[in-house]
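All the exercises in this workshop are built on plain-text protein records. Sequence and backbone structure share a record, each on its own labelled line. The structure tokens are whole numbers drawn from a learned vocabulary of backbone shapes. The record below serves as our worked example for the rest of this section.
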Amino acid sequence: MTGELIERTYWGPPNWGEQPATDRLEEAWILVLDAPACVLADHANQTNDQAESNVIVVQLVVTDPGPDKEYLKQVGNLVGRRVTVGGALWHAVTGHNRTPVMLMVASIAAT
């Protein structure tokens, strides 16, 4: 998937913005796609059992296996740039998921 990588701040637990004095802020990397995408349903997987059409934003899920978080820093340096991202798609399933479609990042590079 190709688009612009942006970063957004959202209200988090415990009250998801209803009580800002006690609620945590959460950062999310969002890929704004160059063109709308359609995501097919995967009926064998209960979290991906619904198709999505005209998807224009996906939240990136980036894990960093290294102790120094270098990969996370590299991804952060791409904010505001056009990138190409590869990985696995799935539906949002928790309050921490900010877009209907999520993308578990396997690769990311500036385009």
User: Anything to note?
Assistant: Strands lie at 2-11, 25-39, 52-61, 82-91, 101-110. Residues 11 and 19 are 9 Å apart (CA to CA).
